[in-house]
Design brief:
This protein is α/β, with parallel strands linked by helices. The protein has 2 domains: about 1-75 and about 300-320, no CATH class; about 85-290, Rossmann fold (3-Layer(aba) Sandwich). The protein contains 9 helices and 14 strands. The strands form 5 sheets. The chain has a 6-stranded mixed β-sheet with strand order 8-7-4-9-10-13, with helices on both faces. The protein has a two-stranded antiparallel sheet with strand order 1-2. The protein starts with a strand and ends in a 10-residue tail after the last helix. Mean pLDDT is about 85; it is low at about 285-295.
């Protein structure tokens, strides 16, 4: 059962006062008929009118209910159409901590990471994408969707302001990405971070990911040279002594994390990384060369509108006044 515009169903509540008013009217009418008909000799005529008036009230009520259902886009079941079957959910877990704003070759690490995500998603318009942004706590920016355009638009919101929690908890980001995965035939999680992990559960999360049958790509952002850390407004991020923080990419940690999950480690600046992700998508079950049936809700608004008009017409016919023939 499907409703395209379910708020219209609230109008069905009007049937309650309608039914009450009609019941009062019909009861008073029956009382009048019982008193007047025997004196006027019109028992059969008035009794027939009362019956038609009852049917008319019911017909108008049904007509209104059908009109409301038509307006709500009511439908039962689905029709199906063929679309390319990718069969894989790709969840990007993107580190948006302040250290990702550090510049590498004149560009922020975060910009390079977002460009990587954008390139992968744009190359497969029919793919299924999700996005988790994390610092000390993760936030699901995009639940798994096949709307690539909406996904790419939301990607612009992946920045430090997406969450106010300090730090960079890689384990929490991976856990949120696992939770975001849908019931696809396979799941690929792409972690993009400089590896400056402030959490404690990253390795445990990697093991859970492996046990769940998900595939992990760990893509480092940055180099082995420490880079100064700033906020989005360009202010220096300093330690309690007033010294500005500077972090390099933690390659050893990221490589070990990928190995823990049985995954692949690479760098977003390396063209081979995007090739590896693309090859993984190609080899995933149903990723290419097949089709899948996509359900499309079937709306019965047209037929319901027609039946509503028919009941309204019947109600108007049945509610005609009784004809009283004069005496010869």
């Amino acid at each position: 059962m499907n409703f395209e515009r379910p708020l219209f169903l609230l109008a069905l509540g009007l049937l309650v006062p309608y039914a009450v008013l009609q019941a009062i009217f019909l009861r008073k009418g029956s009382s009048f008929i019982s008193k007047y008909a025997s004196r006027s000799g019109m028992e059969r005529t008035l009794a027939g009118f009362a019956a038609r008036r009852t049917l008319s009230a019911a017909a108008w009520g049904v007509a209104f209910a059908l009109a409301v259902l038509a307006a709500s886009g009511f439908g039962l079941g689905n029709r199906y159409r063929n679309e390319p079957a990718f069969g894989t959910d790709v969840i990007f877990a993107l580190d948006v901590s302040n250290s990702m704003l550090s510049a590498e070759s004149g560009r922020a690490r975060l910009d390079g990471a977002r460009d990587f995500v954008r390139a992968v998603a744009s190359s497969r318009p029919g793919g299924s994408w999700g996005l988790v942004a994390f610092k000390g706590d993760p936030v699901l920016l995009v639940p798994v969707t096949e709307d690539t355009s909406a996904f790419l638009e939301a990607l612009d919101y992946a920045r430090p302001g997406a969450t106010t929690s300090p730090g960079s908890d890689v384990g929490a980001g991976l856990a949120a990405a696992m939770d975001a995965a849908g019931p696809a035939r396979s799941v690929i999680i792409v972690l993009l971070t400089d590896g400056n992990d402030t959490g404690k559960d990253s390795r445990a999360a990697a093991r859970r990911l492996k046990a769940a049958g998900m595939r992990l790509f760990v893509l480092g952002c940055g180099s082995d040279a420490p880079r100064p850390v700033t906020t989005e407004t360009g202010e220096a991020v300093t330690d309690p002594a007033g010294r500005q923080y500077a972090f390099a990419m933690e390659e050893r940690f990221l490589s070990d994390l990928a190995a823990e999950a049985g995954g692949v480690f690479g760098n977003v600046a390396d063209p081979r990384s995007s090739l590896l992700v693309s090859e993984a998508l190609d080899s995933a079950d149903g990723a290419s060369g097949s089709v899948r049936l996509v359900p499309i809700p079937v709306s019965y608004s047209g037929p319901l509108s027609l039946f509503s008009l028919l009941f309204a017409f019947s109600g108007s016919i049945l509610s005609r006044p009784a004809r009283v023939r004069g005496k010869p």
